[in-house]
TrEMBL record:
Reported cofactor(s): Fe cation
Binding positions for Fe cation per the UniProt entry: 57, 59, 101, 103
All residue ranges annotated as the Pirin N-terminal domain in the record: 7-119
Top-level taxonomic group: Bacteria
UniProt key word Iron: yes
Phylogenetic classification of the source organism: Bacteria, Pseudomonadati, Pseudomonadota, Betaproteobacteria, Burkholderiales
Pfam families documented for this protein: Pirin, Pirin_C_2
Protein name from the UniProt record: Pirin family protein
GO MF entry, a single one: metal ion binding
Protein family: Belongs to the pirin family.
Organism whose genome encodes this protein: Comamonas suwonensis
Amino acid sequence: MMTMRKSQERGYADHGWLKSYHSFSFAGYHDPRHMGFGNLRVINEDRIAPGTGFGAHGHRDMEIISYVLEGALSHKDSMGNETPILPGEVQRMSAGSGVVHSEQNYAQDKTTHFLQIWLLPARTGIEPGYAQKSFSEAQKRGRLCLVASPDGAEGSVTLNADARLFAGLFDGAESAEMTLPAGRKTYVHLIRGELDVNGQTLTSGDAALIENEKQLRLANGRAAEVLVFDLEP
């Protein structure tokens, strides 16, 4: 079974300095039909104006991933990490027993566009942790590249969550197939462009929520960038 969630159905908040689309209930957007999917709790598509950002604030017991599309983020946290996050990089922060961090627009003259992703942790109360890796366009071109996983397989960022995250770029005749594990959930989020997912066309910001399917087929991309989540039930 595959359920489509169109981009325009997402929650939206305009704070002036921040414009954000919410795939699931978050802050002032609440929809009991969309509280998460499996252990995926948040996908916010954020655009931060130059010279602005999120001030220092706390988190605990959440796996938080930042996926930068354009511009750059400046990250600083109570673990001592202070680094820019650039397009093509995947950053994971395990909030664990508690962490304070801030994120600012690191690009001086342009809006920073990124995805903020939250996953429920496999274990709570762990020591906070941090990881950041770059994945090239070549690694993602015409295939699904594993970028985050519980065991760091294939050079991916490690996660304290029962989930795997893949990223891919598809155009023209490029395609990919994935066998879906029985009893798992699959969430496909199209970041930009157009892409056929199991025969149905997604456009920028659309998502496909998949359960009880054996195969995932991606094809007919038109400047498509996609994330695919393998999630616990």
